[in-house]
Amino acid sequence: MEIFKCRYVNHENEEIIGFCLNQNCQKATQYCYQCLTQTHSDHLSDCIRFATMSQLINQFIQVYKESNKQIKETIHQMKNCFEQIQKQMDQEIILLQNMNQKLLNNEYLTFKSEINIIKQFYSKEKENSICIQLINFKRVINNRIQQIS
């Protein structure tokens, strides 16, 4: 394996020992011991030796794995919530269809006993409830996205 050598004058034969990860550093990313003490001395903590670079990368991997796991859990929870809302809406559609059939079949007394259901729909109470749930879910999703970003 070829040894990675420094290219700066006066220490071009020095072995490169790591990389500078400082976003604002304008010097060469790779560094030797002399570069570290001369060129990168104001941000030593951003200079990572080869020996610890792998550990750092593994930490990044773990953070992303954990974030990915949390995203999957959140998606699963949201999916369950939406499925519950959808199931509730499907049941209400069936209820309304049954009520409409009673009305069409002239079953007025039976229909009258369920008139409160129609009143809830007529007043938009049911519709507003669903809208509020959806708005709350969107808010939760947006908050989660902001936490991840």
Automatic annotation (TrEMBL):
Domain of life: Eukaryota
Official protein name in the record: Uncharacterized protein
Origin species: Paramecium octaurelia
